[in-house]
């Protein structure tokens, strides 16, 4: 009985406190999606609306005016009433679809699936890979494999520009990667030199490893050809011709020897 009275008293106390608590007013309004918005659509004024925001801090990249987002393409799907953030939108005028996902100064280049068969079934938009090429250097009969690019972002897998909601990869014919203009040239040149292979890496791994090329004889060190010492032949120098000169002074006779006069002048004895 005492426990019931105590419980009722506590309930009545909190009821009175909550009943007289002042209502929390919205501190501001932020822009949210008015409906579900797919990737690639360019926003219009009817696609967004203002919604009361009760926190004193706005989400990073939030907007408070519709004019700031009209015309910008959607890079990631937005659900109805989800805040529209700057990271979810492409640059105005950048285009829709894949073009809207290419940052300024970067390029998108496609690679055929037969060149990336090693991990083609495990790639999806947002994956990060290293790019290797196997080729035979000019003037060398020994093939080698070299890592030419590291930490490359995959933009599309086939025609899909968004990863599967369940994180499931799919087999594709073409993969498009995001590169700088110079790295785009590297990939194009590498694809013409030999076989291209993609190596899947963790998206959280941002390190640039120092990787040396691997030659075929590095795989089978026991089969390396023996090192043959180079024999240098020394041609003996021909002795320089020597000349002698007999000098007679009265009853005194002397002999002077000298080399070829082209190298040394003829020496004569002092009188």
Unreliable residue stretches: 263-271
Per DSSP, the total helix count is: 3
How much is the radius of gyration in Å?
A: 41 Å
Number of strands: 10
**Biggest β-sheet strands, sense, barrel:** 6 strands, antiparallel
Provide mean pLDDT, rounded: 76
Strand content: 25-35%
Distance from first to last alpha carbon: 152 Å
Structure description:
This protein is 13% helix and 26% strand. By secondary structure, the protein is α+β, with helices and mostly antiparallel strands. Strands 3, 4, 5, 6, 7 and 8 form a six-stranded antiparallel beta sheet that branches. The protein has a two-stranded antiparallel sheet with strand order 1-2. The longest helix is centred in the N-terminal third of the chain and has 18 residues, at 2-19. The chain is elongated. It starts with a helix and ends in a 12-residue tail after the last strand.
Summarize the structure.
The protein has 271 residues and is of the alpha+beta class. The chain is built from 3 helices and 10 strands.
Please describe the topology of this protein:
Blueprint: H1 2-19, E1 28-33, E2 48-53, E3 107-112, E4 128-135, E5 144-157, E6 174-179, H2 181-193, E7 195-201, E8 214-215, H3 216-219, E9 242-249, E10 252-259
Antiparallel strand pairs: 1-2, 3-6, 4-5, 4-7, 5-6, 5-8, 9-10
């Amino acid at each position: 009985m005492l426990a019931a009275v105590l419980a009722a008293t506590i309930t009545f106390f909190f009821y009175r406190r909550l009943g007289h608590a002042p209502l929390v007013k919205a501190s501001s309004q932020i822009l949210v999606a008015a409906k579900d918005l797919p990737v690639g659509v360019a926003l219009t004024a009817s696609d967004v609306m203002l919604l009361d925001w009760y926190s004193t801090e706005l989400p990073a990249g939030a907007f408070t005016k519709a004019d700031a987002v009209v015309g910008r393409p959607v890079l990631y799907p937005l659900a109805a009433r989800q805040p529209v953030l700057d990271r979810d939108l492409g640059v105005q005028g950048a285009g829709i679809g894949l073009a809207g996902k290419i940052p300024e100064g970067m390029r998108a280049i496609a690679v055929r699936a037969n060149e990336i068969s090693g991990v083609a079934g495990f790639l999806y938009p947002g994956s990060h890979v290293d790019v290797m090429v196997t080729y035979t250097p000019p003037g060398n009969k020994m093939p080698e494999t070299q890592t030419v690019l590291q930490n490359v972002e995959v933009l599309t897998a086939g025609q899909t520009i968004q990863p599967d909601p369940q994180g499931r990869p799919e087999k594709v014919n073409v993969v498009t990667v995001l590169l700088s203009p110079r790295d785009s040239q590297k990939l194009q040149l590498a694809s013409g030199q030999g076989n291209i292979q993609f190596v899947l890496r963790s998206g959280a791994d941002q390190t640039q490893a120092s990787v040396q090329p691997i030659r075929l004889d590095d795989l089978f060190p026991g089969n390396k050809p023996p090192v043959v010492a180079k024999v240098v032949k020394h041609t003996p120098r021909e002795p320089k011709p020597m000349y002698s000169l007999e000098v007679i002074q009265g009853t005194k006779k002397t002999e002077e020897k000298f080399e070829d006069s082209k190298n040394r002048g003829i020496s004569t004895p002092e009188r």
